[in-house]
TrEMBL record:
Main subcellular location of this protein, as a coarse class: plastid
Pfam families in the cross-refs: Ribosomal_L29
Protein name per its UniProtKB record: Large ribosomal subunit protein uL29c
Superkingdom, taxonomy of origin: Eukaryota
HAMAP family: Ribosomal_uL29 (MF_00374)
Keyword presence, Chloroplast: yes
Region ranges (Disordered): 140-169
Keyword annotations from UniProtKB, A to Z: Chloroplast, Plastid, Ribonucleoprotein, Ribosomal protein, Transit peptide
SUPFAM superfamilies cross-referenced by the UniProt entry: Ribosomal protein L29 (L29p) (SSF46561)
Organism per entry: Cardamine amara subsp. amara
Subunit structure: Part of the 50S ribosomal subunit.
Membership in a protein family: Belongs to the universal ribosomal protein uL29 family.
GO cellular component: chloroplast; ribonucleoprotein complex; ribosome
Amino acid sequence: MLSLSIATPGTAAIFRRGSASATSTSSSFHGVKIQHQVSARVSAISSPGKSSVVMMSKREAELKDIRSKTTEELQEEVVDLKGELFMLRLQKSARNEYKSSEFRRMKKLVARMLTVKREREIEEGIGKRLSRKLDRQWKKSIVPRPPPSLKKLQAEEAAEEAAEAAKSA
């Protein structure tokens, strides 16, 4: 990948990073020779008789699931995910334990869903201006509701209280 050689009149030192490859580019500057080796990617060649198994990446599988949903389902899920993001921000501000990777994952998932929604609008011939107008109307029509994680937490607390009431009775 990258090879650096420093040559003085009496000694020579070579520092290498990576391995040798088919092509390379190099330049020299006042006795310092910098050589950058570019590795070419070679696609895997399957041997005859062996079947190649193609694995779908997680992102592609996620996109397939997203595309299979209706636009209304996507909008509902976007609202839920934004509620989850709000709950994560609350946990962060309260200095509770939370997974910081969830922020990025949820934001990307919301972006993917909105992208699929916009792709469908483009297929229907809805322009950018009308799309934004429809989005504003949709946002105004959203009824505030607790996110699924909060609902689950409330259900667990209610079950604990019911169990305690049953023990004391």
